[in-house]
Amino acid sequence: MRRSRKVKILATIGPASSSEEMIRKLFEAGADVFRINMSHTDHPLMRELVRRIRAVETELGRPIGILADLQGPKLRVGKFANGKETLELGQEFTLDDNPAPGDAKRVHLPHPEILASVQPGHRLLIDDGKLELKAVKCDGKSIVCTVIAGKGISDRKGVSLPDTELPVGALTEKDRADLDAVLATGVDWVALSFIQRPEDLAEARKIARGRALLMSKIEKPQAVARLAEIIELSDALMVARGDLGVEMPLESVPGIQKQITRAARRAGKPVVVATQMLESMISAPVPTRAEVSDVSIAVFEGADAIMLSAESAAGEYPVEAVSMMNRIAERVEQDPTYPGIINAQRSEPEATGADAISLASRQIAETLKLSAIITYTASGTTGLRAARERPQVPIIALSPVVETARRLSLVWGTHCVVTEDAFDLDDMVDRACRIAFEENFGRPGDRVIITAGVPLRTPGATNMLRIAYIGAEGRGGA
Q1: Contact 115, 97 (CB under 8 A)
Q2: How far apart are CA 409 and CA 189, in angstroms?
Q3: Contact 64, 74 (CB under 8 A)
Q4: Beta carbons of 38 and 46 less than 8 angstroms apart
Q5: Which of 76, 176, 266, 466 is catalytic?
Q6: Which of 26, 72, 86, 396 could form a disulfide with 31 if both were Cys (CB 3.0 to 4.6 A apart)?
Q7: Is 261 a catalytic residue?
């Protein structure tokens, strides 16, 4: 099944889309990778969802990626005696370590790390920013605040801290248990929530031990400030615009989205744009014009993937949402301005043999108008380098490792095929040409360009580039 676009679609599965039949429909509508949100999924259900996705993968014969999204630290206020309170602008309101039910003057904050870290002048945003407090006095046991904006507060509402760096890691006890569970099922990607600093990745990477790739969700100002360091230690990034828009001014988010997307592209790391892309399709069969424009901007920016959350997980029109996102992406990539915009953002290659080969293969393929770039990749690195170039022609990533093909299903422009490793150069050319023919990327007489490492089966040694004709019945020829 060949896609008619290069950007990938990541669909969250949930109550509206968790059956095997619905997963198949979502894939056929355009989903390339499925997200399991561990905030709402227990371990037995998670294992069953993975089983269903793998069953669809086997049935359709195409590698499908799975992303497990860890919840991360959830910071919430305690409960109120009346369930909720109405505050006045300018009044004092205290968050403290007293577990007694709250009132209009105070509430319990069951997070000593917040009480110890917030300083006078820091903002505290309650309930996704609907209530804004400003700290005026802190003693480690309580935070006396002034109400800056908003009035309502109620039981267990979330707390965001845009000005405060907490001395805790990104993994909670729940996250550690969830991480062990998802790794045991063989998921391909793990998303880490509320990353603040590069060190937050260390524990997860130690636990993962290469069994899954790590995606850092950028949703805090502290992460934006240390973006370059986080990119270096991450396998991929997600622009998590929901919490990012709570902790930073909304008008800053579009620019930050561009900064993150372009920085990830320069580094050759996949980047996903997420949150509210087709939000109105939770309850409507068509999106707003603004949402269509929002999706198109991410595609024009060259993001590797665009993501649906509640639209596909709990909405009334999950298949229609995926289909709409697919149509938007296809139309954008057919727009005459698209190649120029993508080319204008291209970075200089890094000084490595693999990057030089990837650059050369793109230039040759576009100059000679070849049908495809075909890359042999065991670890996935060569496929990533080919995608970093954002070529106009399709990329066929051939791998003997099914896990590699699944991971690359998130990566821009890559059509992944699981195949046995070639046993010599002639077999490598024949196999590449035959697959290009069988997967409808070329016809007899068309030319393709092949990259690989010699000697064969040497990971990370991409050093060969070859142009070949697709012969009769897909056989290769020099």
Answers
A1: yes
A2: 11
A3: no
A4: yes
A5: 76
A6: 26
A7: no
Q: Exactly one of 6, 24, 35, 123 is catalytic; name it.
A: 35
C-beta atoms surrounding 58 within 10 Å = 10
Say if residues 212 and 237 touch (Cβ distance below 8 Å).
no
Taking the C-alpha atoms of residue 83 and residue 163, their distance in angstroms, rounded to an integer, is 28
Instruction: State yes or no: pLDDT of 475 exceeds 80.
Output: no
- Is residue 47 packed enough to be buried (19+ CB in 10 Å), middle (13-18) or exposed (0-12)? middle
Measured between alpha carbons, how far is 95 from 125 in angstroms, rounded to an integer? 12
Cα separation, 245 vs 133, whole angstroms = 17
- The alpha carbon torsion through 351, 354, 358, 363 (nearest 10 deg) reads 50
| Mean pLDDT estimate for the chain | 95
Domains and CATH numbers, the chain: 8-72+170-334 (3.20.20.60), 84-160 (2.40.33.10), 353-477 (3.40.1380.20)
Query: Which amino acid appears at position 271 of this protein?
Result: V
> Omega into 73 within 30° of 0, i.e. cis?
no
The conformation of residue 472, written as its DSSP 8-state character, comes to: G
Specify whether 205 is catalytic: no
Query: Average pLDDT for residues 120-126, to the nearest whole number?
Result: 97
Phi, psi torsion values for 353, nearest 5 degrees: -60, -40
Distance (Å) of CA 71 to CA 41, 57, 63, 209, 475:
10, 26, 26, 20, 49
For residue 339 the two structure tokens come to 């190649």
Q: Which of 5, 52, 197, 217 is catalytic?
A: 217
Q: Which of 41, 164, 185, 275 is catalytic?
A: 275
Placement of tokens 């904050």 in the chain:
109
Neighbours of 406 (CB within 10 A): 26
Active site residue 451: no
- Segment 319-331, tens digit of pLDDT: 999 999 999 999 9
Q: How confident is the model at residue 474 (pLDDT cuts 50, 70, 90)?
A: low
